[in-house]
C-alpha cells in the first residue's frame, strides 16, 4: 500500500489559544488505485497523535504494516486509512471544538475529510479510535454522516474515568496554580514522562477541551480539592453515556463496534458497558466485547475493528 502526506494550512486552527501550529500533515495509507475506495478516519489516544501510528514498533506492527498484512491475508478488503496530525501542547486531543484549545472537530470535518474526498473521490467514511480517540469516534460518529464507528476503550462514564485522577493531579498542579502556567511548566521538565506530570497535564487538557469559554477552568478547587459542580456539570455534558441517548436517531442505521478491557486502568469497562446497554435498548446494530486485559498495549485489537469497519463500508455501497 502507498503512503501519501497531504499538507493542510488550517483556517480553523489559525490563532488557536495554545499557539499550536495551524500547518498540519495528514497521512493517507491507500491502495495503489485509491479512487473511490472507502476510508477510515483514525483518532489516537491521549499523549499520542494519529500520525504516530506510523512509527516503527520492534515488538509489534505499526498501523500501516498491520493494515497491509490484513489486506494480504484477505481479512480486510482494500481500504484507505486517514491519519491526521492532531497533537497539541495539552498532550493530546478530544476531537471537539473548544474555545480554550482549538477547533479540532472543524479541522477534521471541514478540512481533512473534504480534502481526502477531493483527492481520492471517496464518498464512504468510517471513524475509529482508542481511549480519547474512542471518545472522538463516538462523538464524531454519532454527529456526522459516518457509515460505521469503532471505539476501543473510550472515555466514558466520567465519574469513574476521571474523578479518580483528580486527587492525584492536585498536588502537581499546585506547583503553578494557573492551568496555563502548568502547560509551560510541563514542557520545561526534562523528565516529563513521569506519571504525576502526565496525569496533571491530561487534567489540564480535559479542562481545556471541555471548557465553554477561553478560560481553562479546573473542575476542582486547588486548595481544598472540592469538586466545582458548575464546571463538573459542563464536563458531564460531553460524556458519551449522556450524549449518545440524545443522538440515537442519527446512530440508528450505522454499524458500531465497541470493546474494552475487563481490567482497564481507568475503569472504562463500566462506561463502555453502559454504552452497550444504551445501544442494545435502542436496537442499534453493534458488537460489544469485554476482553481480558487493561488499557495499554491493546493495538492488536485493531485487527477486529479494521475488519469490521471495512466490511461495513463495502456493505453500504
UniProtKB/TrEMBL annotation:
Pfam families: Esterase. It comes from the Archaea. InterPro entries: AB_hydrolase_fold, Esterase-like, Mycobacterial_A85_antigen. One of its GO terms (molecular function) is acyltransferase activity, transferring groups other than amino-acyl groups. PANTHER family: DIACYLGLYCEROL ACYLTRANSFERASE_MYCOLYLTRANSFERASE AG85A (PTHR48098:SF1), ENTEROCHELIN ESTERASE-RELATED (PTHR48098). This is Esterase family protein.
Amino acid at each position: 500500500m502507498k503512503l501519501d502526506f497531504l499538507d493542510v494550512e488550517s483556517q480553523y486552527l489559525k490563532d488557536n489559544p495554545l499557539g499550536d501550529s495551524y500547518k498540519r500533515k495528514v497521512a493517507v495509507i491507500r491502495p495503489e488505485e485509491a479512487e473511490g475506495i472507502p476510508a477510515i478516519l483514525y483518532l489516537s489516544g491521549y499523549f499520542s497523535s494519529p500520525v504516530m501510528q506510523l512509527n516503527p514498533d520492534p515488538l509489534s506492527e505499526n498501523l500501516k504494516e498491520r493494515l497491509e498484512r490484513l489486506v494480504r491475508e484477505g481479512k480486510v478488503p482494500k481500504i484507505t486509512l486517514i491519519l491526521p496530525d492532531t497533537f497539541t501542547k495539552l498532550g493530546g486531543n478530544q476531537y471537539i471544538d473548544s474555545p480554550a484549545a482549538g477547533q479540532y472537530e472543524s479541522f477534521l470535518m471541514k478540512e481533512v475529510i473534504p480534502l481526502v474526498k477531493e483527492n481520492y473521490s471517496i464518498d464512504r467514511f468510517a471513524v475509529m479510535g482508542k481511549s480519547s480517540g474512542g471518545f472522538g469516534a463516538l462523538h464524531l460518529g454519532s454527529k456526522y454522516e459516518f457509515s460505521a464507528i469503532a471505539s476501543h476503550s473510550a472515555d466514558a462514564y466520567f465519574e469513574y474515568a476521571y474523578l479518580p485522577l483528580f486527587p492525584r493531579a492536585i498536588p502537581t498542579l499546585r506547583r503553578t496554580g494557573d492551568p496555563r502556567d502548568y502547560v509551560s511548566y510541563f514542557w520545561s521538565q526534562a523528565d516529563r514522562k513521569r506519571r504525576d506530570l502526565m496525569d496533571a497535564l491530561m487534567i489540564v487538557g480535559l479542562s481545556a477541551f471541555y471548557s465553554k469559554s477561553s478560560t481553562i477552568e479546573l473542575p476542582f478547587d486547588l486548595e481544598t480539592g472540592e469538586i466545582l459542580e458548575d464546571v463538573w456539570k459542563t464536563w458531564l455534558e460531553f460524556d458519551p453515556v449522556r450524549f449518545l441517548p440524545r443522538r440515537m436517531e442519527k446512530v440508528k442505521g450505522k454499524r458500531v463496534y465497541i470493546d474494552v478491557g475487563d481490567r482497564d486502568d481507568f475503569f472504562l469497562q463500566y462506561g463502555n458497558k453502559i454504552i452497550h446497554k444504551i445501544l442494545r435498548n435502542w436496537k442499534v446494530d453493534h458488537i460489544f466485547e469485554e476482553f481480558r486485559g487493561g488499557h495499554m498495549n491493546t493495538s492488536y485489537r485493531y485487527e477486529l475493528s479494521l475488519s469490521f469497519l471495512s466490511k461495513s463500508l463495502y456493505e453500504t455501497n
